[in-house]
């Protein structure tokens, strides 16, 4: 077989592969469906009376601006407990614990959550990681941290009992 025949066969295989890939992409694009169009809701016959917003039972007070990073960590732990009353416990920490996830929470200048990084994953009860992340998001914002030195981060260790209730280690003294 000569050199030109070999490169011609290789070129033919290359074109066939490209054609197959293009066909697969085209068919894949055709298989998507458009989202259903929302049906217009019927207009009310008469205007409804204004409804007062329901008072939120778990509304947190506005956070104070922490003066130190240690103050930020303590305020964050207290807000975690206040924002998650049915998910926390107080008192003695049982032995052994179900799980001990550790999160590093990075904040924006206004105290809102910028990023949450898992520093320690428990070997069992992996769902406690998401429970911890959700608890942090419910407790935010954590106060204006713009006057504190950067980086605006704190670390919290969550001590989970068997009933999946947690206690921030910062409050365990």
Description:
There is one protein chain. The chain has a domain at 69-171: 2-Layer Sandwich (Fusion Protein Consisting Of Minor Coat Protein, Glycine Rich Linker, Tola, And A His Tag, Chain: A, Domain 2). It is globular and about 80 Å long. Helix content is 32%, strand content 14%. A hairpin with a 5-residue loop joins strand 3 and strand 4 (166-168). It starts with a helix and ends in a 5-residue tail after the last strand. The protein has a four-stranded antiparallel β-sheet, covered by helices on one side. The chain is an alpha+beta fold and 173 residues long.
Identify the notable features of this structure and list them briefly.
alpha+beta; four-stranded antiparallel β-sheet; 4 strands; Fusion Protein Consisting Of Minor Coat Protein, Glycine Rich Linker, Tola, And A His Tag, Chain: A, Domain 2; single chain; 173 residues
Which fold name is given in CATH as the topology of the domain at 69-171?
Answer: Fusion Protein Consisting Of Minor Coat Protein, Glycine Rich Linker, Tola, And A His Tag, Chain: A, Domain 2
The CATH architecture name of the domain at 69-171 reads 2-Layer Sandwich
Total number of β-strand segments?
4
Integer-rounded radius of gyration: 28 Å
User: Segments where pLDDT lies below 50 for 5+ residues?
Assistant: 41-57
Please list the strands of the largest sheet in the order they lie side by side: 2-1-3-4
Q: How far apart are the first and last residues' alpha carbons, in Å? A: 83 Å
Largest sheet: 4 strands, antiparallel
């Amino acid at each position: 077989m000569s050199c030109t025949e070999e490169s011609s066969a290789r070129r033919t295989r290359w074109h066939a592969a490209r054609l197959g890939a293009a066909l697969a992409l085209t068919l894949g694009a055709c298989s998507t469906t458009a989202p259903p169009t929302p049906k217009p809701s019927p207009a009310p016959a008469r205007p409804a009376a204004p409804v007062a917003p329901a008072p939120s039972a778990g509304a947190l007070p506005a956070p104070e601006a922490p003066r130190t990073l240690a103050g930020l960590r303590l305020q964050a732990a207290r807000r975690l407990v206040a924002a998650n009353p049915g998910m926390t416990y107080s008192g003695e920490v049982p032995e052994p614990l179900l799980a001990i996830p550790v999160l590093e929470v990075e904040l924006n200048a206004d105290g809102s959550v910028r990023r949450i990084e898992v520093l320690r994953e428990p070997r069992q009860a992996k769902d406690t990681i998401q429970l911890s992340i959700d608890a942090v998001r419910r407790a935010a914002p954590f106060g204006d941290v713009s006057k504190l030195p950067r980086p605006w981060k704190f670390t919290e260790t969550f001590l989970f009992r068997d009933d999946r209730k947690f206690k921030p280690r910062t409050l365990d003294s």
